């Protein structure tokens, strides 16, 4: 069986990949995640590729997986908030509305790359500013796209999810599992 490397600093991705039963090394890519002026899907796919490729260059004998998650509300891309004010702006933009969560994944194995993405739709209930500010105090929003964690207290904001819960958390499980099994076996 080939060595599998998760090119990520995201604890969520480590947890999901472990849940799927894979054994792997974790090597964060450290890539700059500043977003360019293209469609959100393209941004996520490019970043997922960049993360995998950056690590794969040093471990060409391994299978490397990287991913990128973005929240899109009203056509605007929401990455990770830089400060409390930005977290509040993001959460206000999500309150009472539907948004999309895009997670793109890139797997590089024996020099071949596979890139795919999945989109989940999420509806938040209306949330008062007071509650949002209390949430920001918990520090849960910090390293999360869109300033919330569906797997944490952020779940209390969610009215509906259409699609894969794990796409929202950072790694779509169905396709990732199948592709990794195929390339590793
Ligand atoms: C929307 C949402 C995002 N997230 C997280 C998943 C990702 O870790 C993060 C989005 O940022 P990413 O840039 O996709 O990932 P990252 O910087 O945390 O890790 P790396 O690039 O090293 O792989 O937001 C949640 O944990 N829960 C959620 O509900």
From TrEMBL:
One of its GO terms (biological process) is nucleotide metabolic process. It comes from the Bacteria. It is found in: Cytoplasm. CDD domains: Maf. The active site is at residue 68. One of its GO terms (cellular component) is cytoplasm. Its cofactor is a divalent metal cation. Its EC number is 3.6.1.9. InterPro entries: ITPase-like_fam, Maf-like. It is an enzyme of class 3 (hydrolase). The record marks 12, 69, 151 as: Important for substrate specificity. It catalyses: UTP + H2O = UMP + diphosphate + H(+); dTTP + H2O = dTMP + diphosphate + H(+). Keywords: Cytoplasm, Hydrolase, Nucleotide metabolism. Its main location: cytoplasm. GO terms for molecular function: dTTP diphosphatase activity; UTP diphosphatase activity. SUPFAM superfamilies: ITPase-like. Belongs to the Maf family. YhdE subfamily. Nucleoside triphosphate pyrophosphatase that hydrolyzes dTTP and UTP. May have a dual role in cell division arrest and in preventing the incorporation of modified nucleotides into cellular nucleic acids. HAMAP family: Maf. This is dTTP/UTP pyrophosphatase. It comes from Hydrogenobacter hydrogenophilus.
């Amino acid at each position: 069986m080939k060595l599998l490397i998760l090119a990520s600093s995201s604890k969520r991705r480590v947890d999901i990949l472990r849940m799927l039963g894979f054994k792997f090394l974790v090597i964060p890519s450290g890539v700059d995640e500043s977003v360019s002026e293209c469609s959100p899907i393209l941004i996520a796919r490019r970043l997922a590729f960049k993360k995998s490729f950056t690590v794969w260059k040093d471990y060409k004998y391994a299978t490397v997986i990287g991913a990128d998650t973005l929240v899109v509300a009203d056509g605007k891309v929401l990455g990770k908030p830089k400060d409390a004010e930005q977290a509040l702006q993001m959460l206000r933009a999500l309150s009472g509305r539907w948004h999309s969560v895009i997670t793109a994944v890139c797997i590089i194995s024996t020099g071949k790359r596979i890139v795919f993405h999945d989109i989940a739709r999420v509806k938040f209930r209306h949330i008062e500013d007071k509650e949002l500010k209390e949430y920001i105090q918990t520090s849960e929003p910090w390293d999360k796209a869109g300033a919330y964690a569906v797997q944490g207290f952020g779940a209390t904001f969610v009215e509906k999810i259409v699609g894969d819960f794990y796409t929202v958390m950072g790694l779509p499980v169905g396709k990732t599992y199948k592709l990794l099994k195929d390339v590793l076996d």
